[in-house]
Write a structure and sequence with these properties.
heterodimer, A: about 290 residues, mainly alpha, two-stranded antiparallel ribbon, 12 helices, about 0% strand, B: about 350 residues, 2 domains, globular
Amino acid sequence: MDILLQLIVSGIAVGGVYALIALGFVLIYKATSVINFATGEFMMVGAYVCLTLLTYLKIPFAFVLVFTLAFAFMMGVIIERLILRPLIGEPVISVIMVTIGLSSILKGLAHIIWTADFRSFPDILPAEPWDLGFAIVPSALKWGFIFAIIGVVIFTLIFKYSRVGIAMRANASDQQVAQSMGISTKVIFALSWSFAACAASIGGIVVGNISGIHPQLGHVGLMVLPVVILGGLDSIGGAIVGGFIIGILENLAGGYIDPILPGFKEVAPFIVLVFILMIRPYGLFGKKIIERV
Amino acid sequence: MRCGDFKDTYVRDEAIFQSVFVKVWLALFLVCLLIFPFLANEYVLYIVNLIGIAIIGAHGLNLLTGFTGQISLGHAAFIGVGAYTSAILITRVGIPFWWSVPMAGIMSAFVGVIIGIPSLRIKGLYLAIATIAAQFIFEYVFMTWESMTRGIRGINVPDPELFGFRFDTERKFYFITLFFVVVGTLYARNLIRTRVGRAFIAIRDRDLAAELMGINLFRYKLTSFAISSFYAGVAGSLWVSFMNIVTPEHFPLSLSIEYLAMVIVGGLGSVLGSIYGAIFMVLVPEILRFGTDFIKDIPAFQHIFAPLREVVFGALIVFFLIFEPRGLAELWRRMKNFFLLWPFSY
């Protein structure tokens, strides 16, 4: 029983991080109908920038975070303008492949700039595990969870109540009407990519804090695909719920099935993914606009 | 000059070899290909063998993605299934290489059909994600099904043999590769002008319209997955006998992406495109290797090759998608058209 509870609690903690990264996918998909396969690389770049600033500038973590987010914002704008804008209206495969190409470029550049060495974050936050009585959350996971939840809440609030967020939602529901109301679709597209890059960067910093950084960190981005599909590609609430479900499921699979089949934890979400796609491809909360053939 | 080449029947328009001129040149080209191994050194032949295997795999993916419009990010998994089937049949059952190739193809085709079943309900982005899932699941199976695949230790495979003649060097293996490439290319070229091939193209252009015109989507989509995976299986099987070893690390997601890149850079929906793309994507890292040889002596740049390869690889994909979405095949066609009437192009 204790093990079960412990697994569920760490599942929830990991799920928070997944929810944050999934938000990066959903923000872009909702606005531009693109799945960004480079989300994982956005995380990796964000984490590296944060780490570099921390080690060289020696300023408080809060400032570093602001600088990192500013960098991510600019990166989002530039990438949208240079790479994604020319491909608007092209077939799905082109758009998928261009984000995959982008991920390859970012991975290579990170490898050249920061080398392939494994790095870990300095202890910026007090390290004390969280004792819930029935289960213990390790320090890194605890901070990860807290950051992820703050990030998720902020982005959800922006999306729900701010002027920009409302413009983004209007654009998502009908581009032509939104444009006739004076909302610039181009600006919204750029903003979506920027926000997604920011969300991914926070996710990257959190994951980097938990498990260290290396150029292959972006792999985590693909591991979040089941979360996005389970929750529904265009639903922010879905990304959050999906994150927790997959987090718990992954930990349960890790706890109970891994001893029999080593490494099963990694594929369990993908097995779930295949079933969701067969039964309910639009996910738990997604819009049912999938064309059946 | 081919400027007087008018086609007055559909049969001629659909012919594999469009004119006598083409036939003669292709025959000459084939002769060159047969002489080539006796002039080239082992390193060049090694690269050429890799290109040949990549061409077979790229043909398969182009039939599925370029002609039928079904995106697959799991091509490496099918290649892996073929490779493992072949390796296990040769080492455990003792079947000769020649029989293991078609059997690997059939096994891959079978797996491909199973993976293809979701394509009947989902398409586009969702299909891409489903095939990624398949890719990860198969990677896991290769790794953990130790009793069959021997896990990370891998399986060692002997060289193929025919009537006591061992294909143990790159030069000898070249002829096996060449045979399969020629057969595979001819089959693909022929397939797209048959009823099946035209059904594929109709499905790609608009699946609902295709169904209204009486094309059975269920049958043709699965046929496409089967043929595509058959090619992948053959490619995997050749690869195993060429490399003499197979381990799970040889079939990662990045290999699937590399094949997609070949098809895109070469030209989606073009048989020649698969060939150009495969040649291009295999040669680029080699050219880069030569390029980076000069700066290797500077300590700071010693480990630049691997990441640089990744950057160039990604940049090529992005560049082609933005500036030449129809790939090298289209570039080549435009160049040919330009020189056809040159210098009187107007």
